[in-house]
Amino acid sequence: MNTKQFMIRDENGKPFIMVAGEVHNSASSSAEFMEHIWDQGKELGLNSLLLPVTWELLEPEEGHFDFSLVDKLILQARSREMKIGFLYFGAWKNAQCMYAPSWVKEDLNRFPRAEVEKGKNKVALKDFYGFPYTSLSYLGEETNKADKKAFIALMKHLKEVDEKEKTVLYVQIENETGLQGAGREHSLKADELFNKKVPAEFVSYMKNSLSSMTEDVRKAVEEGKEEGSWEEVFGACAEEIFSAFYIASYVEKLAKAGKEIYPLPFSVNCWLDKGAKAGIYPSGGPVSRMMEVWKYVAKDVDVVSPDIYVQNFCQICEEYQKLNNPLMIPETAIHSYAALRLVYTIGHYHAWCYSPFGFEDMGKPFNAFQGFLFGMDTSDPLLKTPQNPLEYAYYAKAIDSMKDLLASKYSTSSLQAISSEEKGKDTLLFSSFGFKVIMNVQLFSRKDGVCLIVEKEKNEFFILGHTAMIVPFSTDKEKPNIDILELEDGKFVDGQWQKDRRLNGDEASITLNEPSLIRIKLFSYK
Ligand code: DGJ
């Protein structure tokens, strides 16, 4: 459980849980196009959208900024009482530079490309379907300055137009940074830096950070020399650490300057490594195995966040909480684990944002790309099935409606959850009561289940979930017997519980067949 102070706050300084959706990349390039997407998000119960704002549209001509689109997006959000996380696509988008303005792309001398291979500005990625690849160099000082200038302009503008209303709750800097095709760049400048001595303070920090490191990184750092070139100090991981160091330094320049102007929370997101070799996934990007480097270098970045399309969702959530990193999921799949994971991510990991990517498509049959991305080739039928949007909306609305209560219990054991994806856990213990949560029984028509329980008072709980039979018990040895005093289904309206039915008789066996929200008050006695 993460103990870092809750960081996303609304205009009143109140903690805010972003039940969000990230739009397809090109959607927010047109305010007109966005109109119905905002409505779709609202219908789906989302309280926020994550929207790209791109360097090319912000600064189409050098030094000439255009914030008209940003302003329209903010007004659209306000008119629906929704919030925004802006994703600043500057030099990097999926380790490439497609969102850099033309004047940047065209000037290869001033804004050099990454030399994946010596002397080449563009390569075919052998390990990635021969995909043609180019990216701006992470060592390009002019690129960094120009990118920073655009980011500063954006932050200045947000401060001016939104500081009071706080529609924009955080900003992601760049998108899936890193270098594909090689572990590091191969320009003369890159070679020179790679052969130079690693800064002593960084070496000593790395040598003192072994405990949190991924095994192969730890081994490389442990076995490396106390001083010397990157290769001498970091051995087999030298290229990735080198890239991470310089990419994080690049991003930190934007973050630091941005924070000085308008201190919103800043995040970076990553393309997961999936156990591959650096360069197959973007080398130097903020993956958990490079988190020690990123946390050291990019001190003004508050969160490192994973884009999770893989099947071992929970394992990734665990990994991205190391070093006290507050969990947020800016992108995830829209297969039928989406709703279950929303509930579990909030209830178990106390994440401050959960956001399926391309939520606009939720419920539609997957296209070939989504099928590949979501793991349709496996035997798990749920990975091949689109998320039912009605079910998603039920959970999204429930979580949004109870977010004040939930947020007040973050970082405490008063908010817990169980998911059918995490085998072996079937009991949740609170201060005076516990709950056995039985999912795997013949009774249920579906195999996936989730159950979030929040302890409002010692004897009063709210339970949200499906495919769960719930058996409360007392944890007080002196008072081992219990009775149910009150059991109701209902909803939260304006933060207050509103009961629908009083449940008793057959319903007192507490079996959540379908997505449900209930309130239970218990009594224990001798
Ligand atoms: C991850 C990227 O960050 C997104 O912008 C988008 O390209 C998705 N992948 C596509 O699935």
Summarize the structure.
The chain is an alpha/beta fold and 526 residues long.
In this structure, how is the largest beta sheet organized? Answer: 8 strands, parallel
Distance between the termini: 34 Å
Tell me the count of domains: 2
- Dominant shape: globular
What is the overall number of helices?
Answer: 17
CATH superfamily heading of the largest domain: Glycosidases
CATH topology name of the largest domain: TIM Barrel
Provide the residue-averaged pLDDT.
Answer: 96
CATH architecture classification name of the largest domain: Alpha-Beta Barrel
Q: Pairing-aware structural class of the strands and helices?
A: alpha/beta
Structure description:
This protein is an alpha/beta fold and about 525 residues long. The chain has helices at about 30-45, 55-60, 70-80, 100-105, 140-160, 190-195, 200-205, 215-225, 230-235, 240-260, 290-295, 315-320, 340-345, 370-375, 380-385, 390-400, 405-410; strands at about 20, 50-55, 85-95, 125, 130-135, 170-175, 265-270, 305-310, 330, 355, 415-420, 425-430, 435-440, 450-455, 460-465, 470-475, 480-495, 495-500, 510, 515-525. Helices cover about 30% and strands about 25% of the residues. Strands 9-8-7-6-3-2-1-10 form an 8-stranded parallel sheet. The protein has a 6-stranded antiparallel sheet with strand order 11-14-15-20-17-18. α1 (about 30-45) runs parallel beside α3 and α13 runs parallel beside α16 (about 390-400). Bound molecules: (2R,3S,4R,5S)-2-(hydroxymethyl)piperidine-3,4,5-triol. (2R,3S,4R,5S)-2-(hydroxymethyl)piperidine-3,4,5-triol binds near residues 94, 175 and 176. (2R,3S,4R,5S)-2-(hydroxymethyl)piperidine-3,4,5-triol binds near residues 25 and 176.
